[in-house]
Amino acid sequence: MNHKESQDLMFNIVRDKSVLKQDVFNNIILNFKILKQVLKEVSDDLSARIAQVDDRILVEYKETGEFEAKVRVAGDLLIFQMHTNVFKFDRENSLWKTPYLSENDNRGYCGIINIYNFLNDSFKYNRHNDLGYLVGRLFVNHENHFMVEGKRQLGFLYNDFVNHILDKDKLKSIIQSAIIYCLDFDLLVPNYDLIKEVSVREINQIIDDSRIRTGKRLGFVFKSNSDSVD
C-alpha cells in the first residue's frame, strides 16, 4: 500500500467511524435529556402522592450536571449517569448473530446510561467508604434501538435490542422498574465478624468519615443474569 492509499484509508476510517460515533453520542445526549425530564415527572408525582400519606418521607429529583441526575426516594438514592464515550458490543455477544447487527456493523455501537443505587445517608453524612451498586445499564444505538442489562425486571423486560425502540414511555418504564428494584433491595445487617473490631481512632471518626462500611450488600457482585449475592 503506497502513501496515497494509506492516506485515503485513514481518511475513510476517520470519516465513517467518527461520523457514526457522533451520531450515537448525539442520540444518547438527546435521550438523556428526555430521561431527566421523565425522572422529574416521576419524582414529582410520587412526592405529591406520598406527602398525603406521610410528609416525613422525601422524594426529590436533582440534576447534578449535563451527564448526571439523582433521585432520592426515602432512604435510597438512584444516580443516572451517562457515559461520554461510545462503545461497541463485544464480538462474543450473541447479538452479532442476529440479522439486525450482522447486516450492518454500525448498529453495534451504543451510548450507555448507568443506573446506580446508594444509601442517601452515605452522601448526606459523607461516608466515603459506603458501597453503591450498579443495578442497570441502558444501551442505545444511533437508530434508537435499545436494551437494558440489569437486575430482575431490568434484565428481562428490556432485553430485545433488535426490536425495541426507545421513547419517553419506555424510559418511564425503565425508571419505574429501577426504583421498584432499589426499594425492594433492603439494607442487611453486616456480618458480625466484619465489624467486631474497631479502633479508638475509627470510633472517634465514625460520624465524619465512617470506617465501618455500609451497603445494602457487603461484597455484592453485579451479575447480568443472576440476582444472587456473593
Note down, in words, how this protein is organized:
Strand 2 (68-73) and strand 3 (76-82) form a beta hairpin. The protein has one domain. It has 230 residues and is α+β, with helices and mostly antiparallel strands. The protein is 38% helix and 20% strand. The chain has seven helices and seven strands. Residues 218-226 have low confidence and may be disordered. Strands 1, 2, 3, 4, 5, 6 and 7 form a seven-stranded antiparallel β-sheet that branches. The protein has helices spanning 3-51, 99-102, 120-124, 153-156, 168-183, 192-195, 200-204, and strands at 59-65, 68-73, 76-82, 87-88, 109-119, 133-140, 146-150.
Write the layout of secondary structure elements.
Layout: H1 3-51, E1 59-65, E2 68-73, E3 76-82, E4 87-88, H2 99-102, E5 109-119, H3 120-124, E6 133-140, E7 146-150, H4 153-156, H5 168-183, H6 192-195, H7 200-204
Antiparallel strand pairs: 1-2, 2-3, 3-5, 4-5, 5-6, 6-7
Helix pairs in contact: 1-5
